[in-house]
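Q: What structure does this chain adopt?
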Amino acid sequence: MPRKEPRDYQAENKQYHSKPAVKERRAMRNNVRREALREGKVRKGDGTHIDHIKPLTKGGSNGKSNIRVVKAKTNLKKGNR
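A:
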């Protein structure tokens, strides 16, 4: 079995994660999660995700009508649809 080279996280961060648009979307997702924590809808480590019904990448918003709490497996299965 061929050996995989380790991931270069610094290069990955420079190429993708540090872009302004990506940072903005991440901040938006984090804000929604914190709000759900304050409202008692989720808890840290409870295995749930905040799902945007219409993804942020496709023009969705962080409005309450576009947010729902789902199990992580369900959200990961949905992807960017």
